[in-house]
Structures are given as C-alpha cells and as structure tokens.
Fold each of these.
Amino acid sequence: MLLRHSRAISTQSPASLLLSPTPRGARLARLPATEQLRFWGLPLSPADQIVAELAGNAATHGRVPGRNFRLTLYVAGGTLRIEVTDTRDDRGPELQHPTGGAESGRGLLLVDALADRWGSASGPRPRKIVRAEVRLREPKPENACSGGTGGLFQEPSGRKKPHQAPPLPPTARAHSRE
C-alpha cells in the first residue's frame, strides 16, 4: 500500500492513495503517509496526527459502502497540504466541543490546533475534500530519516527537493490560526 506519484514527468505530482472507508483503512492511512514524508525529507509531526484524524473522519462520517476515500499529500511553496476526499458531500466537517465524558468528537479540534490552516470544499459530485495545511520549517537533524525505506520510494538521480504543486484555490470553509 504505497502512495502513488509520478517520478518521471515532474516534481508537480502529489502523492495519493485510495483507502477503504473502514476503521482499518483509516488506521492504515498513517503508515504510507509517514513513509512518504520521510521520503521527501519532511518532519512527521504534526502531519501524521492530522492524517490520522482526517482519515478517521472520512471512514466514520464520510463513509459510503463500496466507495473508497483518497488521501493526498503534496507541497506547495513552503506548505505541506494534506487532503482527504470522501464521497459524502452532504456532510461537511463541523468543529465541535464535546462534553467532558464523550469518547469521540475531538478530531477536528486536534486538526484545528495542529494545522496552520484547514477547511473543506465540494469536489466533483458527490465528493467532499477536507484539507489541512502545515507550514514547513527547516528540518532539524533529529528529524532526519535514518535507515533505508527498502527501496519503496526511489528518487531519480539529481533531484533532492520535495514534490511541488501549484497553489490551490481558497476552500469553501477555511479555518486559520493566523
């Protein structure tokens, strides 16, 4: 289960993966995302937690039997964009403040706290895209990947930069910590 990206054409291609809209699919989203971030030389935190929360929401609230959700990662400028696309455009994400004893309902609170900006937009019908952005900082030596990835993500020679993608249009519902 690897994130799919085009290495041959350009550095503009995002990494993307289809996952089943089940609790297992949501849990599995984090592993290939962290491997892709390592491959690009980007810090894992807080992106790994954001991926987990958005994938969990897609499997819980965006589930339509027989239709997968898509996880997409890419870098635009100095920003990592994390997108999760599901097939329930009738149910947008709502930031809620659960009661003290509630066992769920805190996912978007975490995304709101960890992401520099997040929001949602309608995709091609019947899709909904929930996007979170994390500004990239200079990597620190302790965040560097040590050890190989088993040849899963082999970079063409001469290219060292993370994948770049053009800026996105503003989302329909956006939230920013600025």
Note: Residues 4-12, 141-167 have pLDDT under 50 and may be disordered.
Amino acid sequence: METYLNLMLIRFGLIVGGLVVLAPLVFAIVLTLKRRGRLDEVRRYADPAVRAGLRAAARRLEGRKNGAAWSRRQDGR
C-alpha cells in the first residue's frame, strides 16, 4: 500500500510540476504574440479548435450522465 501511495504522490508531483513549467511558458508566448500584434490572428485560428474541443468534452460528459462508461461504445462492445 505504501508503494502505491508513493507512486501516486510522484505522479501528482510530476503533473503539478508540468503545470508549473507550462504556465509561464504559455504566458511568455501570449506576451510575445501580443507585443508583435499577432494575438488577434492567433485567436481567430484557434477559436474553431477550442470550440470543437469544448463540444467534444460536453458530449463526453453527457455520455457519463446517461450511465454509459467512457471507455465503452454505446452498443456495449
């Protein structure tokens, strides 16, 4: 049990560490794009991808509410 908890703690630490590194990196990219005046252009291209991702996430959450497992198909296979 102790080994399992240690692995979970290491996994949590890696995830949090990755987020801590990723946040300033994204901030620096956005700041650079804003200074060069290309932030609006990037938003225009990224908007359809973000909307599609949100729709997919909403469909996935709706499937969980209906009792269907996330890893199973709707026909039970």
Note: The chain has a mean pLDDT of 88.
